[in-house]
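Annex B. Sample input.
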Amino acid sequence: MAPTSSPKKEKRDYYDVLGIPRSASADEIKRAFRQMAKKYHPDLNPNNKEAEEKFKEVNEAHDVLSDPSKRERYDQFGFAGVDPSHGMDGSGFGGFDADDMFGFGDIFSSFFGGGRRGGRRGGRPQHRQGSDVEMDLQLEFEEAVFGVEKEIPVRRRVPDDVCNGTGAEPGTKPETCSTCGGSGQVARTTRTPFGIMQQITGCSACNGRGQTIKKKCAHCKGTGVVTEIDKISLKIPPGFPDEGVVIPVEGKGNMEEAGSIPGDLRLNVTVATNPVFTRDGKHLVRELAVDYLQLLLGDEVSVATLDGKSVKMRVPAGTKPGTMLRIEGHGVPVFRDKLNRRGDLFLSLTVDVPKVKEMDAGERQSYEDLARKYLDRIHEKFARQEREIQAQQEEKRR
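Annex B, continued. Sample output.
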C-alpha cells in the first residue's frame, strides 16, 4: 500500500494575513507588516509555535505584496503566480513548470486567466510602475564628514496640480469605465472543441485604468502628470562614506500616468576633495610643515582642524620628518554611531626648508656661521652612512 502524505495546511490570502484591503497602498502594506511582525515576533512570544508560524506567514505575505511585480502576479494568478509548485499533488513534479519550460505560459494565462497557475485574484485596475530617476550628487568634503540637510532639484514627472493628478478637466472627474466596470480588464468567452475557454485581457476602452475621462485636462493632456523640477529634502548623516554609495529615495521617481506607482530616485554620490585634509575611513590625515629646529629641539604648536578649531600639540625633540602624530577625537564622526564617537586626526610631519632669498642678512649670517662650525662633522657623518650602505651592497653581490 502506497504511503499517503498528510494534507498541506491551506494558505491564507496574503491580504487577509496583513489585514489590509486589495487596494492598499505601499505605505499601508509597510505599516501593516510592521504591526503584525511586532505582534508575532518570536522574541516577544517565546516557545509559542503558533506565533512562530504566524510570523513566517506575515513575512511571506510582505515579501510578495511589497514587490510590485510579485504583487501583480499574485493578484492575477493567486499563489501559483509566485510559487509554481503551489497546487501540485505531490507526484514528484512540484518543481516542474511546463508553462515556462515550453513557452506556453503566456498562452495559458491569456486563455484561462492563469491556466494551470490558478485564476485571477481580486479585480483591481493594473497601475503602471513609473520609471526610476538616476542622477549624480556631489557632496562637499565637509558635508560628508559632518552631515548636511539639503534640498536637491530633481526633474521628474509628478501629479498635475491643475487637475490634482486625475487627468480630467477641473470641475469634472473620471468616470468608472462602463465596459469593464472599473476592473481594468474584460473577459471573453470562446467555445472550442476542448470546451469553453475564457480569455482575460486589458480593457481597451480605458487602457486598463478602470476609469475613462470625457473632458481631458488641457494642462497635462489627460495624463494626470507633468514634468517639473521637484525639490527633494535629503538628510546626509555625519560620517557619510566617501566613495561608491548610491542613495535610493523611495517613491521620488517618475509617475507614468494618473494613478500610477511612482518609481524611485537613485542618487550616485561622490565626495569632493579637500586641499588640506584627506580621509582614511574614520580618520583624517593632513601634512604639517614645521621648521627643522622644531623637529630638532621640540616645540608646542597650534594645529588647525577640519571643523575650524585650533588644537595645541607637542612635537617631541628629535622627531624625524615623515613621523605621524595623532590628535585623538578630531577625525570623522563614526557613521550612525549612537555614542557620537569620532576618529582621530593624523599629522604627517614635513620639513619647511627656509628660502634663501627670503632671509635677511642677520638670519643668513647665522646659518653660515652654524655651517662653518658643524659642516665638516655633517659631511663625515654623511660619508660614513654611505660607506656602510656601499659595503652592504658589495657583500650581497659576492
